[in-house]
Amino acid sequence: MVERLKQRNARIGVFGVAHPVYWGQFPGLEEQLMKYHEEFKKIVYENGVDVVDFGMIDYSEKAFAAVEEIKGGRIDILFCNMLTYATSSVFAPIIRALDIPIILVALQPRRQLECEEANTRQQLENDNICSVPEFTGVAIRMGKKVQDVIIGVLYDDNEAKTNISEWCEIAKVLHDLKGARFGLMGHVLEAMYDMHADPTAIADAFGVHVPLLEVDDVLAVYETVTEEEIEEKSRLILECFDTPVPVSDPLTMKLTEEDLYNASKTAVTLDKFVEKYNLTGLAYYYNGRPDSNHRQVVSSFIVGNSLLNAEGIPMCGEFDIKTCIAMFIMDRLNIGGSFAEFHPFDFDEDYIMVGHDGPHHIAIADGKPVLRSLKKFHGKPGSGASIEFKIKEGPITMLGITQSYDGKFKFILGEGISKHGPIPPTGNTNTRGFFEPTTKEYIKKWVMAGPTHHYALGVGHHADTIAKIAEVLHIDYEIIKS
């Protein structure tokens, strides 16, 4: 029912390398290697990306010419296809000049050589690994880095395909970071020192722009919303969410018509607001005077934000732009990205509640999410519709973005398991998070790493993939181990 506003995509550059002396010695070898190159490109294409092929680079002159082509190709990552042995002179100009992730791919056509029947040509067709150490060594001598090396077989190698797919997913994150606009609106919730972030530092670290917006900018759009648009949005909300009666929390009520109307009007407003300011995401917080339009509108953001999260636009409360970017990274990896923090432990069953009262990524909900009316938002001004659901059962990943004493950003990464079981019926999202060796020991390691109290929550185990994104962005990271 809720589809992405913008499909995930990336531009993947590929080129092959070889030693041109072979062409005269072994007629037809170049043509055969290029057939293997086409097979490799098919594997890349399967990941829903645009592939730009820079062909065979077998002379240093071609390498220098290719640099200019690649620079103009708006490439997100570059696969160097190690087709056979090649001298590092065809690689050095490329690794020296480019500032994009370059991955060496050494996929030999045969799983093994039949030594009793093998010949030199067969060896050359399967010499994909031969010059890999030469290439990585030259990169290091030039003060550069080969981002990864993928080793395997060209045909029916699921591990190699998974490794290629992982880099294509990373490329989709990098692609959408370019020129992204993460808006900031309002101010930090009073006394939350961990939420502050310098927009210039954000722009520098992630290559994005941070437009500074006013609540009045939202109100100007709010006044343009029609009753027809509100009715249409209300129908969508009621299709997406259950609206049960209260259970145990006296703060909750069955969703009221007034709260549905306010949430629907604000959801339409946010759709238009995001479009008007061309936002990739938004971090916000604002108190407003009691009974003011400012407070009424901002306190009814949660439902509209959660719908936008599912559409690929991360919307983050409490002015937390760092977690907004963490949510964006998870969304572009297609693993969710809910706004989360830690809630009470269950020391008997060894889990901790993981969730928040703010916007969530309903695409990773376990079943149909619930919409309740809250008489008050605890710790914050206002009242209204709020979302409650559990994360899908299975592996989960946490990404917190924090800063060290010198202002540098750092990724804090963790992995656990979301397991079946009830959650408190409080109108807040929660899931039962289990961690090894015990949840208490793991959470202690997490908090000692110096995170902020928020993080993005996604499905699956993807800490290693996100760590690679940190490396590409030259950002420190720490994976909390059990």
From TrEMBL:
UniProt key word Isomerase: yes
Keywords, in A-Z order: Arabinose catabolism, Carbohydrate metabolism, Isomerase, Manganese, Metal-binding
Name of protein: L-fucose/L-arabinose isomerase family protein
Gene Ontology molecular function: isomerase activity
Domain L-arabinose isomerase C-terminal: 337-475
PANTHER family xrefs: L-ARABINOSE ISOMERASE
Pfam families in the cross-refs: Arabinose_Iso_C
